[in-house]
Amino acid sequence: MLEKAMVMDQQRVAKGPRVFVGLKIAPAIAQELAQYAHRIEHAPSRFVPCDDIHLTLVPPWNENSIADVIGELRTTSSRLAPFPLAFTRLSYWPYHRRPHLLCVECTPSDELAALQSALLKAFGQTNDRPFKPHVTLARLKRGAKPASAKSALDQDLALEQSIDTVELFQSPKPPAKGYAILASAPLSTDHSGTGLAPSPSLASERGRRA
Fold first, then answer.
1. How far is it, in rounded angstroms, from Cα 159 to Cα 196?
2. Which of 26, 82, 89, 103 could disulfide-link to 134, CB 3.0 to 4.6 Å?
3. Which of 20-29, 87-96, 129-138 is the most confident on average?
């Protein structure tokens, strides 16, 4: 029994913290999006706190070499230029009739798609699904029905944020709450970035660990 406990402890240490890469939504815009969510959804399972509102670009994985990840993040971000992120409309995901999430959709611009593609390659991950950028505002209870008619969501949002950094987040360990930002890497102001491939050694290492 003691040996089993020791093995489990070693596995927890080896597993490393849960991290992901994404975009931190500016406080003023996050507050406005949260207000939209509260007006539409009155009894969700959980509203996402303003400080935690973000757009995920690389899904979570367990990582032990945080310093290496930060270095690769900065290298990758330095090859791409800042760009605007437009928030377009609110929607229930994955389907309006059987919603799991209340989200705000974002314009899948070429710049945003290029950033995600570069980051996925840098960390040895792939995305087989079409890229549909969105920001989660509320997580709904299982079996919940939409609080608002679809027509109430069909409104254009005149919200836009300048994206000039990309963040490395750490997910909290239960029962803790709230994401921690481990690093914020600036995008390059030099528009002559080449979009070079990431370091193959780090990318392959991420692929083995994902």
1. 32
2. 103
3. 20-29
